[in-house]
């Protein structure tokens, strides 16, 4: 029992080590975006594309993974993810716009592999503690984002460098994570062949993709991610345009990320006291709405408080979205399929956010119209959220008669479960 507990704690620590690397490559760009734009004479739309490009590939692995005949083990995905991330971060040290965008693209692919692998590992190794372990994982993600967003400008000043070196230093913790997971990869057994009579991966994936509940989870994941990356990409610039200094804007985004961690930690305790997760969705939407509106239009003296409020709302949304993957999945196999779908499609939805806001800002010359669009999207988050928050699960039939195809209804059974 003690050895098993130690193994679970070590596994959780390794998940945290990966998680802290899954956002800095993206969020650290925000505080430096004004300088990057000036260095390469980027338009608002091009600057939005810089943060949108990795988001377009955040779910890239998730879109192909469900249809692989035999998926690699999670350990292999995490080592590959961190190794590719190191290469991507170092590529941005080169003094060329093409290298900057190529490194961002590769970082998005690397992060997509980690994004998809971890929910399945959580369902496999911690099946009875999905909300709690997911919250710890999301706290690690947000803390990594907070530290990187707050530290890049002070690091730049301390090093007396341009914007490239602080971004390149992010490769160090990614390399550490790759090396830490390598022993587990070497000890991991080979991926087993599908059991006789079990549905093929393609059939299992089709079952999830035909599920209305799966699409509701996917839309909630995508919309809350869109709002999060609008925050990362444009809130520093909005605050600077309202008179805040560059370094202070970086600290403000760091505070926002830290409060996301607080919101994420609250999720397992709130879920435990709720019949289902629909009240959590309503709180998430309301708090996020107040945060965005306040940052745009409230007195500048309140920006720090409102950034914290926005962070709490987004932390609730992110942990809730990832928890839905485990809670709405009947077993680890379904969780893996749903993780690929929700994050693969979800991050494609999210990618539109920074680009759209950059376009609206260029078109209108101000922030009123872009923020109005953000608030409309925030309100729309309630629609898939309230549906995904009900106590139901997605099942995939264990087997089908030889030579027959599974019907759409059989492939995606939705079972009502009470007291979950």
Description:
This protein is 76% helix and 2% strand. It is mainly alpha-helical. The chain has a single domain (7-188, 199-397), classed as Growth Hormone, Chain: A (Up-down Bundle). The chain has a two-stranded antiparallel sheet. Helix 12 runs antiparallel to helix 17 (368-380). The longest helix is centred in the last third of the chain and has 33 residues, at 332-364.
Shape: globular
Instruction: Indicate the structural class.
Output: mainly alpha
Q: What is the distance, rounded to the nearest whole angstrom, between the alpha carbons of the first and last residues? A: 26 Å
Number of domains: 1
Spell out the helices and strands N to C.
Answer: HHHHHHHHHHHHHHHHHHEHE
Tell me the quaternary state: single chain
CATH superfamily: MFS general substrate transporter like domains
Strand content: under 5%
Q: What's the story with the biggest beta sheet?
A: 2 strands, antiparallel
Radius of gyration: 21 Å
Uncertain stretches? 399-420
Give the integer mean of the pLDDT values.
Answer: 81
Tally of separate helices: 19
CATH fold annotation: Growth Hormone, Chain: A
Helices and strands in order:
Elements: H1 2-19, H2 24-27, H3 29-40, H4 44-58, H5 60-64, H6 74-91, H7 97-125, H8 130-159, H9 164-168, H10 171-187, H11 201-209, H12 212-241, H13 246-272, H14 278-297, H15 303-327, H16 332-364, H17 368-380, H18 382-388, E1 392-395, H19 408-411, E2 413-416
Antiparallel strand pairs: 1-2
Keywords:
mainly alpha; Growth Hormone, Chain: A; two-stranded antiparallel ribbon; disordered C terminus; 2 strands; 420 residues; 19 helices; globular
